[in-house]
Design brief:
about 60% helix, about 450 residues, elongated, alpha+beta
Length: about 450
């Protein structure tokens, strides 16, 4: 199914930016949304652990920046996407704030280590020297408090940001931090409880999911589950992902997400079965038909009953021509239980297509019903002027009243002394609730019989 295109509104002082997102990337603890305004100007929307930070206008990215690395190594989803929609909805309203305002904004909710990490996001937009000085200030705040462990955690962030910087090298190799460096090499449990960023980096799949759940980062958890399933497409991993969708996303979003998985791994039967059931529940007959035909599904008894009931309710209201492959296959597999459906389908085809096209379309059906044989006869005599009466009666049998009138009127003109086409015209107009015309043809029929 197609999701509606998104627009994102970001308040900027007294005006509002109206942005169209193009994609979202999940990378480490960051989510980044690439958007464009109506002048094709690019704005990046930054989130940390699903919490909105700010929007930044950009013209280019530094090749080795954190953002460039995120787009290269992260998990990217094109817009529109339920993950993106959920992220925007949980953070609205959005405001574009300046860099000084951002630094104040992140003081209260985040540790200094996390603040330093967040600052690295903006390397393409804020001078690197400025960012480095602000990180250095966070480092010294820890030092002044005597929190050497915290100071070393900031140094680790700075080392990733500016590995060749002299100050960073000196502090990283300072004997005062030797014990902390050893703890990182050992992946100490005590250390993990202090440095949650490092803990997240080292976590197993199960531990990472628990951490995300504890921090209520369910969008990230869903994305992580999906990536894990793609890497290891097992029934167990699929059930984990499926459970996450059921908990957090509505029916339309789940259908969209299942469609994406189905397109990526079309041979995975559990996804196909779930998607097929979603289409049935949503009464999406076109999608049911497409999936049934493309994947060559074999329906169990209950599924067949559901499909049959949906078709009977729908009565092929949508373009029946699109359902030809579906009807061809389902009637061949269930000939005894689809007779009435096939008859209704043939009637609907005649309502929407020319006779010769209906005839051509039905030639590939293996089971020839009585109505299909009538269509074959109609196609055979459609240009035979001696058979207009028969053709009109056949059209009438298919409830094609206008076409039957055309045939009976032609028969009347060809055989003016014959009452039969007049009798039929009276009957057809009566069916159309056009009683004046019906009575006129009835009287004309009586007159012709008198003159005969």
């Amino acid at each position: 199914m197609l999701m509606n295109p998104m627009t994102i509104h970001v308040k900027q002082q007294k005006k509002e930016l109206v942005l169209v997102p193009s994609r979202i990337v999940f990378y480490e603890q960051m989510q980044l949304v690439e958007t464009f305004n109506d002048q094709s100007e690019c704005y990046m929307l930054f989130f940390y652990k699903q919490k909105y930070l700010t929007a930044v206008r950009t013209t280019r990215l530094k090749l080795k920046s954190y953002v460039a690395r995120a787009f290269k190594e992260g998990t990217v989803y094109d817009s529109p996407h339920p993950f993106l929609q959920a992220l925007i909805e949980m953070n609205s309203p959005l405001h574009k704030i300046s860099y000084p305002q951002l630094k104040k904004k992140i003081v209260r909710p985040y540790s200094r280590q996390e603040q330093a990490k967040i600052l690295t996001f903006f390397e393409s937009f804020i001078p690197k020297k400025q960012l480095f000085q602000d990180m250095k200030s966070l480092f010294y705040q820890y030092r002044r408090e005597g929190n050497m462990s915290g100071a070393y955690r900031v140094i680790r962030v700075m080392r990733d940001f500016a590995p060749n910087n002299r100050f960073v090298k000196e502090m990283a190799n300072d004997l005062a931090y030797r014990d902390f460096a050893d703890l990182y090499l050992e992946q100490s449990h005590t250390l993990m409880e202090r440095d949650l960023l490092f803990k997240e980096t080292c976590a197993s799949f199960e531990d990472h999911q628990r951490l995300l759940k504890e921090e209520n980062r369910w969008i990230e958890a869903s994305s992580h589950l999906l990536s894990h399933f793609y890497n290891q497409p097992t029934p167990e991993n699929y059930q984990l992902y499926r459970a996450s969708l059921s908990r957090h996303f509505d029916c339309d979003s789940r259908t969209f997400l299942l469609e994406q998985v189905s397109q990526t791994i079309p041979s995975f039967p559990l996804v196909t079965e779930d998607l097929f059931q979603h289409y049935l529940v949503n009464e999406n007959i076109s999608a049911v038909a497409r999936l049934y035909t493309e994947r060559e599904l074999m329906l169990n008894e209950e599924q067949f009953k559901q499909v049959k009931a949906l078709l009977e309710q729908n009565r092929f209201h949508e373009n029946p021509e699109n359902l030809l492959p579906f009807m061809r296959r389902i009637t061949a597999q269930n000939p005894e239980h689809t007779r009435e459906l096939l008859d209704a389908f043939v009637i609907r085809l005649l309502e929407t297509m020319e006779l010769e096209h209906v005839h051509a379309a039905l030639q590939s059906f293996s089971k020839k019903s009585s109505l299909i044989r009538k269509v074959e006869r109609m196609n055979e005599i459609r240009e035979d002027l001696d058979c207009m009466q028969e053709l009109g009666e056949l059209y009438y049998g298919f409830h094609q009243l206008e076409k039957s009138i055309e045939c009976f009127q032609m028969e009347m003109e060809l055989k003016p002394s014959t009452p039969e086409p007049l009798r039929w015209l009276s009957k057809v107009y009566a069916d159309k609730q056009m009683m004046d015309e019906s009575k006129a043809y009835q009287q004309l029929c009586v007159d012709v019989q008198k003159w005969a």
